[in-house]
Design brief:
Largest sheet: 4 strands, mixed
Strand order of the largest sheet: 3-4-1-5
Oligomer: single chain
Structural class: alpha/beta
Helix content: 40-55%
Order of helices and strands: EEHHHHHHHHHEEEEEEHHHHEEH
Radius of gyration: 24 Å
Length: 361
């Protein structure tokens, strides 16, 4: 995913925490606790303390934050308080609000722009079909939103305010100091060392790509593809204490680009690029390479030893080893005139978690 920032002054790029964005993350963690093992104690205690009536209302509307995140939950201009950000939401027109609220799948048309279901029949049918697949209560809620958008928007605001009263206000008081400190640190890096350094510090999945004729873009390393432009607007980067392993970036037409990144996260081994994870999975998926890995896991082997063990030619073994090595799955050592290969255990052991982190990012 890319954000074209050619000609955008660095003072139009800001790091700032958002209570509404963090509430969206908290609601997602409650809806999908399996994504957030680090938050197990918080999600368990918070879920247990929810009043049944509030839990039912959250379930009714959770498509807005369960599998994807509605764009209105990522404010382009974060405020100090949740109330101020909810006031900003109230200023959105119904078409934009409902279109964002009902974009509940990772559609390939997202970056192109999907007409609001309030004005487009195809979008309306799509929203109703997607909601029906999530259950009758979700379907009824979407039907109500399409029929009475103003009243439903007021219902959503009350729901978010009730969440604030029930658990989020205390949570926000606890994490906002950390998030503000993270944002100040990244802002100082941006001022002193430049945007590339600030992006890398925010996440190993963020980078600055500079091209010919002064062009530049922010690259977000995700499995999804999309592009947007920030010329004439701005880019906001929002730290989160509840977001890992997710990394969100808005790229829908008509919305200022926003990137939400996990604050102060340093993973063992760093963040693996999506292309590297794909290369590793493809490398071990081949039947012969999987068989070779059986030997390479037990000790260091030369090419000729592996060829003899499996009855194939040394050049064929070399081709397989080259693919495994390019994927970073092997270590090599020279012993006299022999080059010995062995499986890199820490890398292979991380492959499952790297895969999950990549698809959840």
């Amino acid at each position: 995913m890319t954000i074209d920032i050619t000609g955008l002054p660095h003072e139009r790029i800001s790091f700032c925490p958002s209570p509404l964005a963090e509430l969206g993350n908290a609601l997602h963690a409650l809806a999908e606790p399996g994504h957030h093992a680090r938050l197990h104690a918080w999600t368990t205690a918070t879920s247990a303390a929810l009043k049944p009536e509030l839990a039912d209302r959250l379930h009714e509307a959770d498509f807005m934050w369960r599998s994807t995140r509605s764009d209105f939950l990522l404010p382009a201009e974060p405020r100090e308080t949740l109330a101020e950000e909810l006031d900003d939401l109230d200023r959105l027109d119904d078409e934009k609000f409902v279109g964002a609220a009902l974009e509940i799948s990772c559609s390939t048309r997202y970056s192109e722009g999907i007409p609001s279901p309030l004005v487009d029949e195809r979008s309306r049918r799509r929203a109703l079909d997607l909601a029906a697949a999530r259950g009758p209560r979700q379907a009824a809620f979407v039907e109500r939103m399409l029929a009475e958008p103003t009243a439903t928007r007021a219902w959503i605001r009350r729901l978010l305010e009730d969440c604030d009263d029930a658990f989020f206000a205390d949570t926000w008081r606890r994490v906002r100091v950390q998030l503000a400190a993270d944002a100040r640190h990244k802002t100082e890096l941006l001022r002193r060392k430049g945007l590339a350094e600030a992006l890398t510090a925010a996440s190993g999945a963020l980078s600055l790509e500079e091209g010919p004729h002064g062009t530049s873009r922010i690259v977000v390393d995700k499995l999804v593809h999309g592009r947007t432009e920030a010329q004439g607007t701005a880019v906001t980067l929002v730290p989160t204490a509840f977001g890992w392993p997710h990394l969100f970036a808005t790229s829908a037409p008509g919305w200022q680009p926003v990137i939400q990144y996990p604050a102060a996260t340093r993973e063992v081994g760093g963040v693996e690029p999506v292309d590297m994870v794909k290369a590793r999975l493809e490398a071990i998926a081949h039947p012969m390479r999987m068989r070779l890995c059986r030997n390479l896991a037990r000790g260091a082997y030369s090419t000729s030893e592996l060829a003899d063990a499996y009855g194939i030619t040394p050049p064929e073994v070399s081709r397989h080893l080259t693919i495994l090595k390019k994927a970073g799955l092997l270590t090599t050592q020279r012993r006299g005139r022999y080059v010995l290969h062995q499986l890199d255990f820490p890398v292979v052991a991380r492959l499952g978690s790297d895969f999950l982190e990549s698809i959840l990012r």
